[in-house]
TrEMBL record:
Signal sequence interval, chain numbering: 1-22
The protein's name: Redoxin domain-containing protein
Pfam families: AhpC-TSA (PF00578)
Domain called Thioredoxin: residue spans: 25-183
Coiled-coil annotated residue ranges, if any: none
Keywords associated with the record: Signal
Entry keyword Signal: yes
Cited Gene3D superfamilies: Glutaredoxin
Any one GO MF annotation of this record: antioxidant activity
């Protein structure tokens, strides 16, 4: 009985210490870089891009909500890429074809090609950035502002307030944040 109690306590302590070590980024925190393999086969490195910032979209090929947002994500890229904010898609399951065959790199590549994505679509490695930004559903957006020492987290959340692709959103959260950053209204 003592061994059982000791084993349970050890598991609890290890679990608590492991969770304490998992850092989640919040608004205002700094991310040094993201460098992940793209659906085109190359490593895409944010720090090597000429940009004022990035709009990261966590999305999967088999998610109905993500599919409903495809046109809006493409529109975000078309609107903000010329202004220096680059859209980057990130597939949380991209590196795990065994467990997630409908959302892994082959499916991501097929989706990017069939929809003509002009933005990179990257495979997250072991959910590193998915967990780092506390992404629990897709699609979700993260807006990063380029700084001298990396990227400041400016926004984490929904793209807009309308998941129905047939309806027009009344609040465009990502656009509002990027517009503030472009106007210099946010540090």
């Amino acid at each position: 009985m003592k061994k059982l109690i000791l084993s349970i306590l050890c598991c609890l302590v290890l679990g608590i210490s492991t969770n304490a070590q998992q850092r989640v980024l919040k608004l205002g925190d700094t991310l040094h870089n993201i460098a992940l393999k793209s659906a085109k086969g190359q490593v895409y490195d944010l720090s090597k891009q000429k940009a004022k910032g990035f709009i990261l979209i966590f999305m999967t090929p088999s998610c109905d909500h993500c599919l409903a947002y495809e046109k809006r994500i493409i529109a975000l890229n078309n609107k903000y890429q010329p202004k220096g904010f680059l859209v980057v898609g990130i597939g949380p399951y991209g590196d795990n074809e065994k467990d997630y065959p409908y959302d892994a790199m082959p499916a991501m590549k097929k989706l990017a090609e069939s929809k003509g994505f002009t933005f990179p679509y990257l495979a997250d490695e072991k959910f590193k950035y998915t967990w780092l930004f506390n992404i629990r559903q897709t699609p979700r957006a993260v807006v990063l502002k380029k700084q001298k020492e990396g990227f400041s987290v400016a926004y984490i959340g929904y793209i807009d307030d309308q998941p129905d692709e047939k309806k027009t959103p009344t609040k465009k959260y990502v656009e509002e944040e990027v517009n503030k950053l472009l106007a210099g209204k946010v540090n």
